[in-house]
Structure formats: C-alpha cells, structure tokens
C-alpha cells in the first residue's frame, strides 16, 4: 500500500522514532554492561597495585622482559585511577589526614619511576588525573603533604633554597646523590667542560629541573663550583680547598687538583 499525504509522513516519523528508541535501548544496555565491567576492572587494578607496592622492587634473577612488564603494569594502573577517592563530604574534619595517607600510598609508584624525587606540581597533575571528577585544590595537596611528618610514611615534602618543592623518599639521601654527582664531575670530560643539569639528569635518572636543584645544593655544600655563561650553568668539581694560598702553582701528586691538571694537560 503506497504511503501518501499526511498519513504517510506520520508513518515514516513513527518508524524513525521506533528505530531510534531501539538503538538507544541497545546502547544503554551496552553502557550498563561496560560500567559493571569497569567497576570490576578498577577493583582488580587496585588489588594488583597493592600487590606491586607490597612486593620487592627488584627480584634476583629478574630479566629485562620481566622488569619491562612490571613497568607497563605500573603505567597502566596509574591510568586506571583511584577506586575510592577521599572527599570532604565523606571524611569531614579528618579530610586532610585521610588525604595525606592516600597521597602517601599513591606517590610510591611515581617516585619509583622518577628516581626517588618528583616535583610537587607533577604529583598534583597525576593525582588529580587519577581522581577523575573528585579534584583537589593546590592548597589541599600542600596541606596533606605537610602533615606527613606526623605519620609513619616513607615519603616527605622538601623545599629547596630556590623555593622549588618536591616529594621524595626518605631513603633518598643527599649524601648518596652527592657521591654520584662527584663521581660524574671527576670524569675527564666533566673536568674540562663542566657538568650541566642535563648531564646530571641522565646519570641520576631524574628530570633536569630536579638535577639542577641537586647541583645547586652540592654547590652550597662546597662540593661543586658554578660557571654561568650564555650557554647556561656549568658545574665543576671544587678543588680550591686543596690549593696552598702561599704557593698557588704547587700541585701535589694526588687529589682532585692533580686530576684536573692532568685532564687539562691531556686536552692541549
């Protein structure tokens, strides 16, 4: 039977709405199934994250493939997010205390990836991304980190002389970092041309901005000297304490000054 006139138009619209309604019902059924599965996956990811955090970071005999798989798993779990984020509505007066404990647990994997120290701004971005829509303010983050000293947690908030604030593991000591920087600064190339923040970052396995803060701290402790030029900051090993003021040209057969002189003569 041919469709014509007003009845034909109404019939076509009715068929279109029925088709749309059917498509929406199917879509929402798929969405509900996806949401239920997503909840199960988040719970599974949380269990796996806790297992990784409780287990040793390295195991004897672990090969590169196993370590690579672990790294991929850590990256994937960071993207999944936090299953039950602490909110002001749920925690009330204990909000910052509970947020502090949650944050101390969250930063373990990013700190491991960053070499034991990470910028506070980077943690703010990672943490808010993991919380989804339950975002926190910079003030809440700073206050939560500031009360770590009251709890028995393996991380701490640190502020450098330049004002840069970072989160670091308590086991990440300056003495260990200074020893690695000194070893790097004593290499022949570094003795001749100096040490940049990028060079230190590659050795320490951290960001150049963090490496620069370590170099400046080492300078304040007397381990390094700074040279500022159009190319930026270059740091050299400090051997001035080995020079005799009464005989500036006398070089002993040992020490850092002797190592520097030999490296300089070798380049001529």
UniProtKB/TrEMBL annotation:
The UniProt record lists the keyword Cytoplasm: yes
Database matches in Gene3D superfamilies: 6.10.140.260, Winged helix-like DNA-binding domain superfamily/Winged helix DNA-binding domain (1.10.10.10)
One Gene Ontology term, aspect cellular component: ESCRT II complex
InterPro entries, alphabetized: Snf8/Vps36 (IPR040608), Vps36 (IPR037855), WH-like_DNA-bd_sf (IPR036388), WH_DNA-bd_sf (IPR036390)
GO biological process: protein transport to vacuole involved in ubiquitin-dependent protein catabolic process via the multivesicular body sorting pathway
Gene Ontology molecular function: phosphatidylinositol-3-phosphate binding; ubiquitin binding
Keywords of this entry: Coiled coil, Cytoplasm, Endosome, Protein transport, Transport
Cellular localization per UniProt: Cytoplasm; Endosome
Domain of life: Eukaryota
Function: Component of the ESCRT-II complex (endosomal sorting complex required for transport II), which is required for multivesicular body (MVB) formation and sorting of endosomal cargo proteins into MVBs.
Quaternary data: Component of the endosomal sorting complex required for transport II (ESCRT-II).
Family affiliation: Belongs to the VPS36 family.
Protein name: Vacuolar protein-sorting-associated protein 36
């Amino acid at each position: 039977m041919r469709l014509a006139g007003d009845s034909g138009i109404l019939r076509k619209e009715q068929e279109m709405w029925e088709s749309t309604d059917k498509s929406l019902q199917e879509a929402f059924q798929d969405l509900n199934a996806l949401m239920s599965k997503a909840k199960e996956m988040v719970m599974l990811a949380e269990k796996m994250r806790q297992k990784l955090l409780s287990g040793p970071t390295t195991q004897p005999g672990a090969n590169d493939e196993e370590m690579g798989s672990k790294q991929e798993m850590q990256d994937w779990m960071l993207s999944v997010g936090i299953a039950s984020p602490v909110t002001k509505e749920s925690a009330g007066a204990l909000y910052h205390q509970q947020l502090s404990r949650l944050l101390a647990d969250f930063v373990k994997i990013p700190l491991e990836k960053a070499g034991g120290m990470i910028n506070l701004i980077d943690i703010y971005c990672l943490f808010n991304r993991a919380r989804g829509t339950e975002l926190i303010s910079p003030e809440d983050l700073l206050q939560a980190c500031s009360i770590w000293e009251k709890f028995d947690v393996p991380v701490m908030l640190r502020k450098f002389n330049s004002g840069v604030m970072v989160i670091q593991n308590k086991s990440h000591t300056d003495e260990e970092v200074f020893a690695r920087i000194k070893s790097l600064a004593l290499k022949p190339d570094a003795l001749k041309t100096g040490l940049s923040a990028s060079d230190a970052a590659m050795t320490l396995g951290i960001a150049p901005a963090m490496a620069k803060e370590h170099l400046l701290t080492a300078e304040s402790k007397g381990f390094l000297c700074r040279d500022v030029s159009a190319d930026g900051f270059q740091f050299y090993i400090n051997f001035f304490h080995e020079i005799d003021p009464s005989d500036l040209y006398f070089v002993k057969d040992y020490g850092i000054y002797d190592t520097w002189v030999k490296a300089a003569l070798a380049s001529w």
